[in-house]
Amino acid sequence: MHKGRARAFTNIALIKYWGKKDETLILPMNNSLSLTLDAFYTETEVIFNETFTQDTFYLDGVLQDEKATKKISQFLDLVREIAKKNLYAQVTSENFVPTAAGLASSASGLAALAAASNEALKLQLSETDLSRLARRGSGSACRSIFGGFVEWEQGIDDHSSYATPLSSDHWEDDLAMLFVLVNDQQKDVSSRDGMYRTVTTSSFYPGWLADAPKDLATAKKAIQEKDFIALGEVTEANGLKMHGTTLAAVPPFTYWSPDSLKAMQAVRKLRADGINCYFTMDAGPNVKILVEKKNSKDVKKYLETLFDSSQLVCAYAGPGIEILK
Ligand code: DP6
C-alpha cells in the first residue's frame, strides 16, 4: 500500500487563462498570473494498493459517479505512467469552502491530488514537475503548487508549460480578496467548455489574445513597484475582457448574474468614494474583490448593506502545497 496526503489552496487569476492551444496537454493560449489564497483549500489522500480493482473517488464523504471518477482516473493514468506502476487508487478529497459557495475548485483539487500522488508513490518530483503534472488535470491547478503571486508560463510543449512563483517582497501580505458569493440558478458552462466555445467561435477572441501579453506585463510591473492601483486596474480590465469574449461566442453565454452586476456596481461606488478596490470574475457568477488589507473591513462593511454576511468571505494570500502526515 502506498499512501500520501496533501493540502492545496485555491488561486484566483488576476490575468486570466482563457483558451487552450492544446486540449490534451492543456497548453494555454496566453500566460496568466494569479494570487494563491488562504480561505479555500482541498485536502486529498490517495492510496495506491495492489488489491484494488478500480479507481474510486470520494469527495466530501460521498462516493462519486462514473463521470467525476473518470476525470480523476485519467489524471492517475499520468501518475501511473511516471511511476511505471499499474496500481489502482482510492482518492479521498475534502473541499474546505463555505457551504453552497459554488466554488468547488478544480485548481486546489488537482494540485492536492498531484502532490498527494507524488508523496504516495515517492516520485520525488520537483515543484516545477509537480506544476506540469497538475496542469494536465486542470490548467489553473499548475498555479496552486505555489503560494503568493504566481505566473503560468504558457510554454510550447508539455515540458515548457508550468508555473513559477513571482518575487514580490511579500507585498501580497498587504492585500486581501473579498469573495461575494452569488447564488444563482443558471445552468453552468464549465470553464473548460466555456473557453473552448470562445476560442472556436468568438470573433472577440483575437482581441483578448492581442491584449493578454500587455496586461500581463502591466501586472508584473505593478507587483514589482507595489503599485496597487495599477495592479487593480489591469486586473479588472483583464477580467472584463475575458468575459466580453463570451458574448460573441456561438451560442453566446455569460457567467454574470444580476447579483454579479450589483457587486460590480458596489465596487465602482466604493472607488468613487475614495476606497481603492477592483473586481474580477471567473467561470461563474461570484465576484472577487481585490483590496488592500487596510481597507478590507470598510469594503466588507459596505457590501454587508447589499448582501447577506454569509455571502461575504475575506481571503488573504495563501501558501503553496503542503504535505500532510
Ligand atoms: C476563468 O483551469 O478550470 O478560472 O484547464 O479546462 O481545467 P481547465 O480549466 P480551468 O480554467 C480556469 C479559467 C478561469 C481563469 C483562470 O483561473 O486563469
CATH structural fold name of the largest domain: Ribosomal Protein S5, domain 2
- For the record, give the distance between the C-alpha atoms at the N and C termini, rounded to a whole number: 15 Å
Provide mean pLDDT, rounded. 96
What is the helix/strand order?
EEEEEEHEHHEEEHHHHEEHEE
* Count of individual helical segments: 8
Give the oligomer, counting copies of the same chain as homo and different chains as hetero: single chain
- What is the count of β-strands? 14
Bound molecules: ligand DP6
Portion of residues within helices: 25-40%
Largest sheet geometry: 8 strands, mixed
Summarize the structure.
This protein is an alpha+beta fold. 37% of the residues lie in helices and 26% in strands.
